[in-house]
Amino acid sequence: MNPSAYLQFNGQCAEAFAFYAQLLGAQLGEHHPASQSPMADQLQPHQKDWTMHAQLHWPNGQVLMGCDALMGPYEAPRGFHLTLNRTSVDEARALFDALAAGGQVQMPFEPTFWAAGFGMLVDRFGVPWMVNVDAPTAA
User: Glyoxalase/fosfomycin resistance/dioxygenase domain: which residues (predicted)?
Assistant: First the structure.
């Protein structure tokens, strides 16, 4: 089994997924605009360009899915973080900085007692992230 996350956005799903694809090396998969759905006539005018369903695919089979909050009020994500684990501190810091741009840093990226580098943030789309580089293991 390979669990995946399904993210919900406040009208920014297409923009967020394009950003994540470019930054994280994923391919944009399915994208279903709300305006082309059977429920298009029930949408508010500002929702016509929103996303009903989108997917990102990585070469290793990982999938991230998402949509915009079409059926009710948007609620910011709570109780989880998407996690990026890298082996290079420099690569992890660059990812952290890119995700943090326009967002909110919850814990700056820096060495910790458990990691060569670790940081937490909420990106400009409202998605919480942790970026981690494991500490070197003793040989």
Answer: 8-130
Per-residue pLDDT tens for 88-126? Answer: 999 999 999 999 999 999 999 999 999 999 999 999 999
In angstroms, how far is the first alpha carbon of the chain from the final one? 32
- One-letter amino acid of 99: L
Edge to edge, the sheet with strand 104-110 lists 82-86, 128-134, 115-122, 104-110
- Domain assignment present for 128: yes
Of 124, 5, 125, nearest to 68 by C-alpha is 125
> Which range of residues forms the domain containing residue 111?
82-134
CATH of the domain at 10: 3.10.180.10
Q: What is the pLDDT of residues 70-90, one digit of tens each?
A: 888 889 999 999 999 999 999
The answer to whether residue 103 sits within a structural domain is yes
Amino acid at 1: M
Give Cβ neighbours of residue 56 (< 8 Å, ≥ 6 apart): 17, 20, 21, 24, 26, 27, 28, 29, 63, 64, 65
Residue 17 in 3-state DSSP? helix
Predicted TM-score (pTM) of the model is 0.91
At residue 72, the pLDDT reads 80
